[in-house]
Request: fold
Amino acid sequence: MRANPAVIICEPDEKPARILIVEDDGVTRRVVRRALQYAGYLVAEAADGVAGLDLVQTFQPDIVLLDICMPRMDGFEMCAAVRRLPRCDHIPVVMFTGLEDPHSISRAFEAGATTFVTKPIDTLNLTHRLRYIVRSKQLGDTLRERESQLARAQRIAKLGYWTWDATSRTATLSNGIREVFGLAHTCDALSFAAFLRLVHPDDRLAVKNTIKCGIEAGRPVSFEYRIIGDDGSRRVIFQDNEIVDDERGEARLIGICQDVTERRDAENRIQHLAYFDVLTGLPNRALFKDLLERTLAEASRHGRLAALLLLDIDHFKRINDTLGYEGGDRMLLEIAERLAASLRAGDLVCRDDVDLSGCSLSEFVSPSLSRPGGDEFVILLNDIRRPEDAAKAAQRAAAALNAVFGIDGHEVSITASIGISVYPVDGKTPDHLLRSAEAAMYDAKEQGRNSYKFFTTTLNERARKRFTLENALRRAIDRDEFKLVYQPQIDLAARRVTGVEALLRLQTAELGFVSPADFIPVAEETGLILPIGDWVLNEAARQAVAWQAAGLPKLRMAINVSPAQFRQRGFASHIAAILDRAGVDKRQVELELTESVLIDNTSACAETLNELAELGVMIAIDDFGTGYSSLNYLRRFPLSALKIDRSFVSDICDDADDAAIVKAVIALAHNLRLRVVAEGVETMAQLAFLLSRGCEEAQGFLFSRPVDPNALAEWLPKVPIALPRWPQRAGIED
Ligand code: C2E
Ligand code: MG
Ligand code: MG
Reply:
């Protein structure tokens, strides 16, 4: 059909729009159809609502022209029915209404009509109006298509957006954002508080601050946070906030949110694969190198010692040959587990003198285990006090591998060779330290495997000595290798002996005489000081009673007590029991404590001191001036004496600083009404100085070395003649 040139509406290359006319009046139908066909439309027609509704589905019109009054189904009914059909809610419906019929017009709109034309129909006018309706429908279709494409893309990208409404103080949400946050479909707005409740508690503050900063600076911000779903599921959200001008030129906060959980999980998996050994889950070579670098940097910053233990399983190839690679893998896995457990159990190995009550272990040492490859494991100790600590960790690791392994019904025994290098002695850089540990490990292999070796030979020697000493200490009580010697304490004015200090001696067949300066620290670190300290207390109490029984004067018995002993629960009653059992007068006993005991200043410490004072036991502060000098405790605790450390006394005649310290300590003691005892007095010059400052008591080689009980019993009756002669106190110099 040829179109009337006067009313051509379709562009030549345009697809003709499809118009459905539903009109029971045949004449009107025909007139309208002709006009539309002339204008280039594709037209279908129906004489009532029921037939019209069928055609809507089969003909798929772009526009429906609908009469109101029709048999079977009127126009209102049909219009409403069209709207209910799938994907038909946007088809423009043009209703034919009477000229002066406002009621019908409003009913038509209620039923879902798009617009209306009045009867009688002006066909020319109608074709023109349809042209615009078609255009706007096509525009609407395109928009809807784009919108659904966008929504699809956002769904695929797990993306959504929101806009902040300053008036309602809520964010208006897109469909996508509901899915991102796992919100109900009915939820179309969210307050800031409700949003924050979705955010992981640990991330809330950061999220709040970032958003606030972005708004204040007027700048876009991007950030990531975690949200927790109602079901406890965790998601990672990437958010981008921006301030834009809306249609009215007002600033408005908008944002997009994207669920990046999968991406982050994948990144984490990749990261894990890159840095962790797949078989054991331990740090691999790359991460180990990184850990080593960081450990050494930390150690250098804090002036710490660190150690690297390189552990290689002896003859691992044999295991692979017998059990196959799978068996070998299972073996490596169990080795890793045992080593990790040995480190956990040995966390305190390097710092066993530290009181850990109330502290997390990680504050001290956090040994780390890595598997750089094959049958090689590395233990990194980031903070050790001395190289021997590393040897202890090596011993533990070796012991962990001692027990037989059960793999696939086979019983397998293994040993390891361990090379130890210590930072900074054996290398200051990671590579250097690693090379040293490797060399030490090969050394251990050469020396018959199943052993550990330090890179530095002197360290091997030191470690060996320490373990010999530790073993000797463990056996010394049973073997009766300890004894006490006694050093008199002299009242300088009266020239008489007021007390003795019990000093411990160790002599073993293997080691000969060992100085307390060497064995007391080891006893303290191993905890052996507790049984040893008890032995000392018992023995000193027994000796005091024995001397009195032998008719000697009643002397004060000073006994050294280690911090670990003092901190034992029920220490005071423990002391009371020992002294009662020995039958010694408690007022005769003085316990020598170091300043470090009092410094922790806990209520438990004060309680123990008060309990001891109640027993009548005296407390002296030993080595005074060498500890931390919080003088506060001197006033608060029930003390009886201060002992000036030997290091100050030895130099009082030559060193003005030491002289000043001694002078100050004596004055301090007097002010606090404490007895003051100078230790290590060796010369008359030192004695003269002390006398001139009013020091009332002293002990030292000048009067007597520490001697055994019999020698003391023989010497005592000879005092004061046996003492050197010194002038009586002349007067105190300033
Ligand atoms: P301390 O309690 O300060 O003991 C004094 C130390 O100085 C003793 O060393 C003693 O022999 C030494 N000495 C005394 N007069 C002189 C002198 O004129 N010149 C010199 N050069 N030295 C003198 P010793 O017996 O070697 O004991 C060392 C440290 O070992 C003691 O220092 C004490 O802290 C500890 N110790 C000794 N016996 C025990 C004990 O039974 N238990 C505990 N926990 N520690 C003890
Ligand atoms: Mg002492
Ligand atoms: Mg001392």
About this structure: The pocket of magnesium ion (ligand 3) is lined by residues 622-623, 643, 645, 679 (CB under 6 Å). The CA atoms of residues 623 and 645 lie 4 Å apart. The chain has a mean pLDDT of 88. The domain at 157-259 is CATH 3.30.450.20 (Beta-Lactamase).
